[in-house]
């Protein structure tokens, strides 16, 4: 995990619609950067829909939500359309950003180890600094945790 207080690594990735997003372009706003394993799986859907449902509140607090996984643009587009997600889902097939944010690595399930995308989130402040980090996320409850943290930090 990146340490709270460290500078968030800059990146430029495309979203589900082909739009380009550079982290540094969001300076002056809070950024909820959440990493998730796979489009349209139960946990990832709960988390994405939770952020969708809280998007107006987060936006009122000068925040933008960016979801990120290793899935391709077409998969992200289907996922966004199916669940009416109105925030960018960023594509990182080479896993460069996932690795820079320590969101890709060894995982284990049912006693089996494998490499995969970790469910982690960073709240990045308007100056580009990591303000909060969640190394392990419970998908259904997490969007509310992020909204509460943003409320505390941004007022």
**What is the number of beta strands?**
9
* CATH topology name: Glutaredoxin
- Quaternary state of the chains: single chain
Strand order within the widest beta sheet: 5-4-3-8-9
Rg for CA atoms: 14 Å
Helical residue percent? 25-40%
Helical segment count: 4
State the low-pLDDT regions, or none.
none
User: Tell me about the biggest sheet?
Assistant: 5 strands, mixed
Could you give me the name of the CATH homologous superfamily?
Glutaredoxin
Distance between the termini: 25 Å
Order of helices and strands: EEEHEHEHEEEEH
The chain-level structural class is alpha/beta
Q: What is the CATH level 1 assignment?
A: Alpha Beta
Q: Overall pLDDT, averaged?
A: 96
Shape annotation: globular
Approximately how much beta-strand content do the residues carry?
Answer: 25-35%
User: Do you know the CATH architecture?
Assistant: 3-Layer(aba) Sandwich
**Tally of individual domains:** 1
Give a short synopsis of this structure.
By secondary structure, the chain is of the alpha/beta class. The chain has helices spanning 42-60, 73-83, 96-100, 142-154; strands at residues 12-14, 20-22, 30-35, 63-69, 89-91, 104-109, 112-117, 120-124, 130-134. The two termini are 25 Å apart.
Q: How would you describe this protein?
A:
The chain has 155 residues and is α/β, with parallel strands linked by helices. The chain has one domain: Glutaredoxin. It has 4 helices and 9 strands; from the N terminus they run E-E-E-H-E-H-E-H-E-E-E-E-H. The protein has helices spanning 42-60, 73-83, 96-100, 142-154; strands at 12-14, 20-22, 30-35, 63-69, 89-91, 104-109, 112-117, 120-124, 130-134. Strands 5-4-3-8-9 form a 5-stranded mixed sheet. Strands 1-2 form a two-stranded antiparallel sheet. The protein has a two-stranded antiparallel sheet with strand order 6-7. Helix 1 links the parallel strand 3 and strand 4 (63-69). Helix 1 (42-60) packs parallel to helix 4. The longest helix has 19 residues, at 42-60. It is globular.
